[in-house]
Amino acid sequence: MTSSPEYGETWVYESLVGTVPGLNVSARMAVGIQFVGFEAAILVIAAVYDLQAAVLPGTVAVVVATIGSWLMVQFSRSVRELPTPEPYRRLLFGSSIDVVLGVFAFVTLVTYLFVADPGWSEQPLVTDLFGADPPVVAIWLALLVLWDVVYRIGTCWWASLVGLWRALVYEFDPEVTRRYRRADMINVGFAVVQLLLVPFVIGYPLLLAILSGHVVAVVTVTALSRRLQ
After folding, report:
1. Is 99 inside any structural domain?
2. Which residues neighbour 126 within 8 Å (Cβ) at sequence distance 6 or greater?
3. Where would you find the membrane-spanning parts of this chain (predicted)?
């Protein structure tokens, strides 16, 4: 059974792309625009303000967010092609908990970067990337890219939790179970991709622990749901 996306049963990312007036592009095109737009902005701002140290981490963050967008679409399509119970579908796509988790994580990250880290580190991450007097436009873009990454991390975590709930509540025939497991592995794949950010937080133990712990948690929860199915 294939379910067409309906309002209230899509990721926020999908809803935004699908509801912008006059915008009718494929998922592949939307992801391409996302990457090219962010990367061009990073290169221009780095050139104007001589922030070459921020180019590589910024590019990797954009790559992670872009892959996340693509895998979010692939995951949602895989789920909608299955005989999905309505409560599961609405909880996964329509609850907006993914946004809540993303906002919570983003606020925590901003607090760390601008309040906690300057007090703990000899060379705070923001200073390391943007200098002692960072340009406002560079910080604005950095926060926008970080939100893009963090929102998708929140979505990844929510998908794994709802997948565990699905495994506890519902039973499917072996073929459907196999296809659900395949969809869950798309989500795990995105969690693993987030490890590309590890080299840039090696000197920041708290960020490193949170990022690594998040990936381990997603893998663990998904493994548990696979075992229960």
Report:
1. yes
2. 113, 114, 117, 118, 134, 139
3. 29-49, 55-73, 93-116, 136-164, 185-202
Instruction: Read off the tokens for 50.
Output: 């001589």
> Residue 23 gets which letter from DSSP?
-
Please say whether the beta carbons of 139 and 130 come within 8 A. yes
Residue 129 lies in a domain: yes
> 60: burial class by Cβ within 10 Å (0-12, 13-18, 19+)?
middle
Question: pTM for the whole thing?
Answer: 0.87
In a domain, 165, yes or no: yes
Residue 5 lies in a domain: no
At 30-44, the pLDDT tens digits run 788 889 999 999 999
Domain with 113, as residue range(s), is 12-228
CA distance 175 to 3: 18
Query: What phi and psi, each to the nearest 5 degrees, are found at residue 21?
Result: -55, 130
Q: Which pLDDT does position 52 carry in this prediction?
A: 93
